[in-house]
Amino acid sequence: MNWLRDYNKNNTDKIYIYGCEMQYVLSDVNRIRDYLEIVNSEYKIVGFEKHLWQTIEESEKTDYYISYVKLKKYFTDNYDTFKSKTSEKEFNMAYHHIVVLGQFVTAINQNVEQRKADFRDIYMGENIQWILNFHGDTSKALYWAHNAHVGDWVSNGIVDVTGHQLRKTYRNSYFNIATDFGTGEFLAFSQDGKMETFGYKKVLENTFTECLKTLGKPNVFVNIRKAREGNKMMEYLNSDFTTMSGAGANVRNSKTETNDLGKAFDGIIYLDKTDKINLEN
């Protein structure tokens, strides 16, 4: 991150890092608390210790909802006071963290598990749009997530994912890039729910990944949107691609996966070798 700090020191056009998720909201709670401290408020936020995929009792859901409603009202009632002590921009940022708590409350109160995933992707899209609006008409955003969430498709189960929402909103201004890799290690949850190291030692034959490996020196970027302009490539790009399969959060059972990457993405980056991240406890 040192390059980012150095860049921001020497440039007026800053780069900011945001989260767009709402499945873990303790970070949002902490940022609201930081703001309350700045405005000299002793208001205490309660709840929100659990994340979206944990078992949350009905009584806890009620407590979280009440906590959210009270906090939202407190900020609304004190808008003028808080703004005078900080700024409208700072108030709006803190208030958006409260909005994220509301998104979380809505998701945990769904009786069907799949609906949680649906709302998660929709809210990620809304939060990205909020970030862009917050920084003005000339702002740009790089949205980084698994292919399943980035594609202009219905994926991740049966979810109308974030990438699909962003394409509807921004049309061709949304340029989405898939990632693929050849060999190396990665971390993922095993079938028993433990974080473990997995990996591949070779690229399987007759896969699109093998094609990318042949093109790579050793890595490669393919501009699929540009390739679509040629009629000769259209039929191929509209067909399904078989690539090496790694993981979302959970490791996948098959070494390959087949889907319509050519339709759903504007580009693809192939990395010949991947190294697992350093996991911080």
UniProtKB/TrEMBL annotation:
Pfam families, per the entry: Erythro_esteras
GO biological process: response to antibiotic
Domain of life assignment: Bacteria
PANTHER family membership: ESTERASE, PUTATIVE (AFU_ORTHOLOGUE AFUA_1G05850)-RELATED (PTHR31299:SF0)
Name of the protein: Erythromycin esterase
